[in-house]
Amino acid sequence: MKADYKNWMPKGMVLGTACGTGIALVLYxxxxxxxxxxAGTLRTVLGTIFLxxxxxxxxxxxxxxxxxxxFSYNGKRQMSKQNIDGIAAYVNIPDGGKGLDxxxxxxxxxxACAKRNPKASLVGxxxxxxxxxxxxxxxxxxxxxxEGVGNTSFMQGDACKLPFEDETFDAVTSNYxxxxxxxxxxxxxxxxxxxxxxxxxxFAIHDxxxxxxxxxxxxxxxxxxxxxxxxxxLIDTTDGMFMSxxxxxxxxxxxxxxxxxxx
Length: 263
Fold this sequence. Notes:
Elements: H1 11-33, H2 41-71, H3 79-88, E1 98-102, H4 108-116, E2 121-126, H5 137-146, E3 152-156, E4 169-175, H6 186-194, E5 197-208, H7 211-214, H8 217-226, E6 230-236, H9 245-250, E7 256-262
Parallel strand pairs: 1-2, 1-4, 2-3, 4-5
Antiparallel strand pairs: 5-7, 6-7
Helix pairs in contact: 1-2, 3-4
């Protein structure tokens, strides 16, 4: 049995877009080239519309395919694995301690942290919505078994209102989750996550923390220090740490930042 961490760019989405491209091309041929309609304004307009649509869908399909290949755990680039291993490297949980992974998806980060901390227990939480139907609690459990990890558990829940008491965990982690949550105040979602962190605990949260999505993160960094957090720092992961500047640009991941620190 081999772990299946899926792909952040779902294969079905890539194939669906490719099919849409094919349909748009057929419609362009039928209404723009083939003599189905007589030459005139209607044929010109329809031909132009379907040609433009075909070109746009070709570009989107190529972009999605490159994203799929870059994030694949089975390919050469394996950016997902690089992200996961890089975040897990910051997580050190005392023996008997507990860690929380918010938005665990297929449990890649939960399992990576569990391997680094075999005498601790890791909890992965996710809502596993229909947008990513291939991700599930069962998949997480199967991946843990495949990796030979026995110190993980998984549950369904909402990152905006976590079902845990304050200061429950010795470490909290997350990877590319919060930017997917519709919100005008993602800093408040971060604070909801961090309230579950014990004093002395470590957090390592990676996401696309652009100003448009998160607001002023430098001010938030200072806010955490004023609240008593120490060693708080924002690390740009688009400058060779997890990806190159070029990759961050074409994959629209500019602003990807790792927020790490201790409480």
